[in-house]
Every structure is written in structure tokens, then in C-alpha cells.
Amino acid sequence: MLKEFKEFMMKGNVLELAVAVIMATYFGKIVNSLVNDIIMPVIGNMIGGVDFSEFKVVLKEEIVATETVEAVPEVAVYYGTFINHIITFVIVAFAIFMIVRAYNKTKKKKEEAPAAPAGPTEIELLTEIRDSLKK
Question: Comparing C-alpha atoms, which of 45, 57, 44, 58 is closest to residue 87?
Fold first, then answer.
């Protein structure tokens, strides 16, 4: 069983998948930083110095602790963070689209190699045999 597991782990597909997962994780972090640290501040500045991550709808106000009352945290819907995630998704999807598109172009070039010249069809061969038998 240990030998089978070792063979499974050493297959190219498993190793390629592991590398892809690691690369995707860090690619996601880079895109997150791009959106949160570069794109959203520029967009926020263009619309009046607004930070999208602070956009929220408060459902229940925060209650500060006193001697008689326990503290209750604020309950809110953070739709600004949701907007940031949508922009991040669009950027990642576009990047993956570009990678797949480039891969497909290289794949098509390999497939478009000239095919071997087609030989005579079955009907043509049978016609030749018939004609040679007639002679």
C-alpha cells in the first residue's frame, strides 16, 4: 500500500496540481493586494476620497459596555468589501482567461501540422481493381 501511494504521489499530474495550487494561492494574494491597495484607493479618490471597505449597512448598533450593560458588537452588512471581492474575481477570471487563451493558441499551432496526403479512396481502389480485371 505504501508503494502504491508513493507511485501515486510521484505521478506528474499530482505534482503539477500541487504546484498549481501553491501558485494560485499566491497569485490570489497578489490580485487581492492589487485591488485593495492600488485599484480601490484610486477609484475611491475619484469619487470623493471614499474607502469601499468601509461601506456598510448597520443592522444593529454597537453597544458599549457599562457597569450595568454588557458590550454588544455591531451587526452590519459590509457591501463595500463585497464590491472589492467582485473586482478581485473579475481580475482573476480575466487573467485565467488570458492564460487559457494563450495555451489554446499554442495547442492549435501544434495540431495544424500538415496532414499526410490522402491516398485513394476505397471506391477508387475498387474501380482500379475492376478495370484491371476487365483488361
Answer: 44
Kindly report the pTM of this predicted structure: 0.54
Asked if the model's pLDDT at residue 113 lies above 70, the reply is: no
Superfamily grouping for domain 2-111: Large-conductance mechanosensitive channel, MscL; domain 1 (1.10.1200.120)
The total number of residues written for the chain in this structure? 135
When mean pLDDT is compared across 83-87, 88-92, 104-108, 110-114, the lowest value belongs to 110-114
**What is the residue extent of each domain of the chain?**
2-111
Q: Quick check: helix, strand or coil at residue 56?
A: coil
- If we measure between CA atoms, which residue out of 85, 74, 25 comes closest to residue 52? 85
Q: Return the H-helix or E-strand segment holding 57.
A: strand 57-60
What is the number of alpha carbons within 13 Å of residue 50 lying toward its C-beta? 12
pLDDT at 77: 92
